[in-house]
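Revision sheet: structure tokens.
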Amino acid sequence: MKRMIRITALCMLLLFVLLACRTENAEPVFEAQSTEAPTEAPTPAITPEPTPDEDMIVVTPTPTPEVTLQPAPTPEPTPEPTPAPTEIPVTDPVITLVGGEELTVEANFTFTDPGYFADDYLKKDLTSRVKVTGEVVPYLVGSYAITYSVTDDDGRSTTVVRHVEVVPVEMPEIVMPPEKTVYLTFDDGPCGYTAKLLDILKKYDAKATFFIVGEMGHAEMIKREFEEGHSIGVHCYTHEYKDIYKSEEAYFADFLKAQEIIKEQTGSYTRIFRFPGGSANTASRRNKGIMTRLTKIMEDMGYRYFDWNVTAGDSGKGYTEADVKKRVTGGMKTHTDFAIVLQHDIHYTSVHAVESILKWGKENGYTFLGLDLTSPYVHSTVQN
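Predicted:
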């Protein structure tokens, strides 16, 4: 094998040398034309190809195949299995109560149902079909039930019950004032004399309480009373006993009408009031027991009513300023813990007596305040 390789290499070297020599010695020859026959060029000797040794192995290089990069094929998405249709169970309609089946509310003039809605098993709205029975008397403390029923297109029905508990409004505790505290109160105004009364109170730095009558007008006086630090309470709107005490609802309507006037002038409702004629009035007897009912109802709703333990006696005729002063200061001496004085600012004589009352009171160590929910109260014995 090695011998064969050496012989092949030697032959190739000799061939290369011969070709180089011929190239170097060759010159261009310009011969004249001759009549002689051309001498035949010698035929070059042919060197025989070496015969490969039997042991010689000829290695032929294998061409490198071209590699073409092909993108990987995108796999086909596997289809989602189609779910079997779900069968919707058939059920009775459902009523949902907003606020729940148990409801507690404070006593008030009105009650508003929180609401409800209903649908069937296919979620079809049935709210408009709901029938509601039962009643809540919002101003009467107690337990009530409201029933809601509905029937769907297939005749299936549902009934639910809401239980409503009406409870009293929690009232603040009473705060006893220092001795010799006087609460001057004026009913039935405002009127043309109210401005004069306010001037007198301001002069002596005294506060009072005004239980107003809505139909009297002079609403701007209510605003002034409030802005000067006095207390404002409801007396009534019409002061017509036969109309006011006809029923609980009639009393509420009159009361709320007066409340609106107070809110217009002060920006808020009041929670203090005085019954027309006081809680012990007999003018309401045409409606048996109404005062017994109203006194409890109004307190359950969070209102405080005030009667009086001193009166100026200014509702009648034939009295003088001296009479008014004597009655009021005499009552103040009797009720040294606290005195709630009844007067009327619609009476000129009573209004003018206030200055002498305040002067005497200030000289004898009395304080004049307005009423509020924490003030001590006087409740007369109810006669009806």
